[in-house]
Amino acid sequence: MKRITDERTINYMKKRIAEAGNIVAILGIEMLVEGGGYDLDANDETYRVEEEYGFCPEEMLTTSFYNAKVEKFFKFYKKEIVGMQVHSTPAYDALLKLQAQGRLSAVVSQNYHGLPDGIAFRNVIEYNGSMHSNHCPRCGRSYDLAYVRTSGGIPLCGDCKTAIRPGIRLIGERADTTLMTKAALACEKADVLLILGKNMYEDRFECSIGLDRKQLRVLFSKEAVLSDQKVDFIIRDEIQMILPLIV
Length: 247
What we know:
Elements: H1 7-19, E1 23-27, H2 29-34, H3 43-53, H4 57-60, H5 63-68, H6 70-82, H7 90-100, E2 104-109, E3 124-126, E4 129-135, E5 142-143, H8 145-150, E6 165-168, H9 177-189, E7 192-196, E8 216-220, E9 233-235, H10 239-246
Parallel strand pairs: 1-2, 1-7, 2-3, 7-8, 8-9
Antiparallel strand pairs: 4-5, 4-6
Helix pairs in contact: 7-10
């Protein structure tokens, strides 16, 4: 695949990253897609899902759908979300390199699939929750992903026989204020902010920078998203192509 980003831009970003002591990466949907997952918000995926389930992903990933049509919710959730296979890419290796150098202070994940096998970051903020964390909405008992994956039909609490609540933020729900604050503070302190793909939600956390500081913000996205967010560069190439070149 031919590279779109010019050499001058790559060299400038490489220089700024080499000088940075505090780098924060925000993982978005493109990181998921490049690792073998798929964007359920894409037109072809939305059409496929609607054909199979009779509802679009945006309708099914809501609290109201979970409450009213829990059986159909889990049929979709277990196959399309839990069943999504995601592997590592050279982009993750580049981030691990920054971590080994002591310069990657935080990774903010906007996806809820967790990290690929073998990838471990020291400070991960799962902004939209995680499918690995589940609980009973009645008694609060916790359940791991394996329990949800292997249960037939609706995964029920062993004590209450109530449908388990996935630990992800469903569409329309407010973000956890503690996670929001933690993510915003981490981003605010960064010398370099790497926005690696779009968010799955329309809203997103904002962070401010002091007037005496200059933060480099690089957005990786093939789509025209976050147009109102102030970034220094928008990279249209694949993340796994460019990130190893600038780290």
